[in-house]
Amino acid sequence: MSKLWEGRFSKALDSHADDFNSSIHFDSRMFRQDITGSIAHATMLAARGIIGKEDADTIIAELEVILQDIENGTLSIDFAAEDIHMFVEAELTKRIGDVGKRLHTARSRNDQVAVDIRMYLRDEVAVILEGLRKLIWVLSELAQNNTDAIMPGYTHLQRAQPILFSHHILAYAMMLTRDVGRLQDALKRMNQSPLGACALAGTTYPTDRNQTAAALGFDGICLNSIDAVSDRDFCVELLAALSTIMMHLSRFSEEIILWCSWEFQFVELDDSFTTGSSIMPQKKNADIAELVRGKTGRVYGDLMGTLTVLKGLPLAYNKDMQEDKESIFDAVDTVKMCLDVFTPMVQTIKVKKENMYSAAQKGFINATDLADYLTKKGIPFRTAYKITGQLVAYCIQTGTVLEKLPLDYLKEQHPAFEEDVYSEIALETCVSKRISAGSTSPQSVETQIAFLQNWLGGSL
Q1: Catalytic pick from 25, 261, 277, 423?
Q2: What is the mean pLDDT of residues 287-314?
Q3: What CATH number is given to the structural domain containing 92?
Q4: Contact yes or no for 197/212 (Cβ under 8 A)
Q5: Does residue 166 contact residue 147 with C-beta atoms inside 8 Å?
Q6: 287: in domain
Q7: In the chain, how many domains are there?
Q8: Of the residues 320, 353, 357, 378, which has the maximum number of CB atoms within 10 A of its CB?
C-alpha cells in the first residue's frame, strides 16, 4: 500500500523498517473512534465553508458505509497499512476518489490519533466502571448473607481481634468505591478534545474546535495545541488508576488463596473457578486468584513503561509516543478480563463459618476486650494491659484460654474481676460491642452495606 506521505521521498521504506514503523496491528481496534472523529471533522469543515457541503455529505456517507462494512466483516482491515488512520483514509479515497482527499484538510495524524485514543479509552473506562460496580454489589451481597460469621481479624498476619467476615469483605468493597472515583476523575481530565490542534501549531483554516468537541461528546477542548498532541498524561493517570484496581484485586486474591488452604479452610472456591494437579489427585488449586495476583505485575509494568517512554521527550509529538497504545490497551484488557472472572468467583464462594469461628476461639484475640473490661472497672488502661498480658502468658504456659480461667484465679490477679467477665470476653460480645462508626459490630456492618447499596443506586 502506498504511503499518504510519500511525496517527499525518492525511495520506498525498507520492508523491515515499514513493519517496525507500523502500528495498525494494535491501533486497528480504534476504527470506530477514528471514523466517528472523521465524520465530526468533515461536518465541521462543511459548516465552516472549508470544504463544500456536497463533498462533506459524500465523505460522511461513505465513512458510514466503511464503518458498517468493517463491523459486519465485509471489509477486512489491511494490515499492510501503516496505521488505522491511513487505512480508513486510503479506503475512502479508493471509493470516492479525490473528494476523499479533502477529509484531512485542517487535520494532522497527531491530533487525529490523540482524539481517537481519548475516545477509545473513554468507552473502555465505562466498561470497567460497570465491572467494578458489579463486583461491589456482589461483595455487599456476600456480606449481607454472612453477617453472623465471626472470624479472627489479623495484623502482621497474626490473629489480632475477632471481627465479622462481612466486615472484612466490606473493606475491599470500600476500596473499590475509591477505584471508581479515581476512574471518574481520570475521565474528567481525559475528556478534552485535541482535534483541530493539527501537527502542533494549529491551522490557518477558520475551524471550530468546539463544534467537533461537542459532536464527539467532549467537555471542551485542549487549550494549548502543543499540549494537545504531545502529552499522554491521561494515559498515565488511567494506568495508575488501573494499577490501583489490580493492587486491590491482588490483595484480595492473596487472602482468598490463604483462606482456601488446608491450614485455614475459611472458604472454598467453586469447582468452576479452580484447577487440579497433573500428578496429585487431591489438589484443588485457586489458580484463578493466583493469575489475578500475577497479572497485577503486568499492569504495573504497563504504567512504568509508559512513564519511561514519556520522561525524556521534547515537545511536541515524537514517534516514541506510539508506544503508549500497546501498554494502555494491555492494561485495559487485563483489568476487564480480571474483573470478568474475579466477580463470579467471589459470587460463588462457599463461606465455612464453623472453621472461622473455631480459629477465632484461638490466639487470645479477646485479650483487648479483657483489658477494656478492667478499664471500665476504673483500672488505668496500661495497668489493665499488663494484667491481661500476664494472664495470656499464663494461659500459654498451662495450655488454656482466657475464657476458661477460673474466677478465683482471676480475682487473685485483681479483685475487680467478677462473674460478668466471661460474657464480656465471649466472641459474640467482643464483636457486638464494637459500637464506634465503621466498626465490626453487626449494626455497623449493616450500615456499611446500606451505604454501598445506596451508593450503587439500590441494584444493578
Answers
A1: 277
A2: 97
A3: 1.10.275.10
A4: no
A5: yes
A6: yes
A7: 3
A8: 357
Alpha carbons 360 and 160: distance in angstroms, whole number? 9
Convert the pLDDT of each residue in 100-130 to its tens digit: 999 999 999 999 999 999 999 999 999 999 9
- For residue 131, which of 347, 293, 292, 336 has the smallest C-alpha distance? 336
Beta-carbon contacts of residue 227 (< 8 Å; ≥ 6 apart): none
pLDDT band (50, 70, 90) for residue 2: low
Q: Which of 2, 16, 76, 156 is catalytic?
A: 156
pTM: 0.92
**pLDDT at position 174, please?**
98
The pLDDT tens digits for 62-94 are 999 999 999 999 999 999 999 999 999 999 999
Residue 306's closest CA among 234, 372, 212? Answer: 234
- Tell me what the mean pLDDT of segment 8-31 comes to: 73
CA distances from 166 to 21, 76, 250 (A): 53, 51, 19
Q: What is the CATH number of the domain that holds 263?
A: 1.20.200.10
Is residue 156 part of the annotated active site? The answer reads: yes
Residue 267 shares a structural domain with residue 152 = yes
427 and 321 in a single domain? The answer is no
Q: Is the dihedral of CA 302, 307, 313, 314 positive or negative?
A: positive
On whether both 165 and 289 belong to a single domain, the answer is yes
Domain that holds residue 439: 362-455
Q: What is the pLDDT of residues 229-278, one digit of tens each?
A: 999 999 999 999 999 999 999 999 999 999 999 999 999 999 999 998 88
Amino acid 16: pLDDT: 58
- Closest to 122 in 3D by CA, of 42, 32, 250, 199: 32
Q: Which of 358, 391, 415 is the last residue of a domain?
A: 358
pLDDT digits (tens, 9 = 90+) for 347-378: 999 999 999 999 998 889 999 999 999 999 99
The domain that holds 405 is classified in CATH as 1.10.40.30
Question: Is there a domain that residue 460 lies in?
Answer: no
Q: What is the pLDDT of residue 330?
A: 98
Same domain for 343 and 236? Answer: yes
State how far the alpha carbon of 65 is from the alpha carbons of 72, 74, 217, in Å: 11, 10, 22
List, as one string, the DSSP characters of 436-457: STT-SSHHHHHHHHHHHHHHTT
Note whether 10 and 19 are within 8 A (CB): no
Is the preceding omega at residue 201 within 30 degrees of 0, hence cis? no
Burial 266-295 (b: 16+ CB within 10 A, else e): bbbbeeebbeeeeeeeeeeebebbeebbeb
d(CA 27, CA 250): 29
